[in-house]
Amino acid sequence: MSLRVLPSTDSSTSDCGCSRRTLLQGAAVAAGAVAIAGCGGGGSGDDDAVDASNGGGDAASTGVTMCGANLCVDLNVAANAALAAVGGAMVIIAPAPHGKLIVAQPTADTFVAMSAICTHAGCTVAYQKATNIMACPCHGSKYDVDGKVAVGPAARDLKTFAAAVDASKVVTITLA
Length: 176
Ligand code: FES
Fold this sequence. Notes:
By secondary structure, the protein is mainly beta. The protein is built from 3 helices and 14 strands. About 10% of the residues lie in helices and about 35% in strands. Strands 1, 2, 5, 6, 7 and 12 form a 6-stranded mixed beta sheet that branches. The longest helix has 11 residues, at about 20-30. The two termini are about 15 Å apart.
């Protein structure tokens, strides 16, 4: 299974400015089903996503793979530096039916994972380190890091997933 990941260290900007060209270059380097395009400052655009939805990622280049029925993100891989940093985040396109997920590390070695799709109208949320929330750039909805709506217009919470890091610095996101 393959995954897509979006670094999202600070959602104060809704678009990281990554170009399609950057994404394509990242995909070419990955030379497989997994495409990654790092982008300092992070954002919420699809251009930053790492795609894990097609089966078997290129773990050597992305560090994002399916591990059994779950999703594993290797923080030792440079491509995942955004998530490896405390206060960092990234977006991963997980296999259906899960779709786009956002994973963040609000405090050291504590990870949260949830749907990245705003329940209001489907925009991609981004993690805001300063306020420790998931913010939607489209109409201002905000969610706590437990996925609960903090500010509307969204009325429904984001679906959350268990996420934990092990001693080898691999984050496992339980998709079940
Ligand atoms: S789509 Fe997120 S607030 Fe409207």
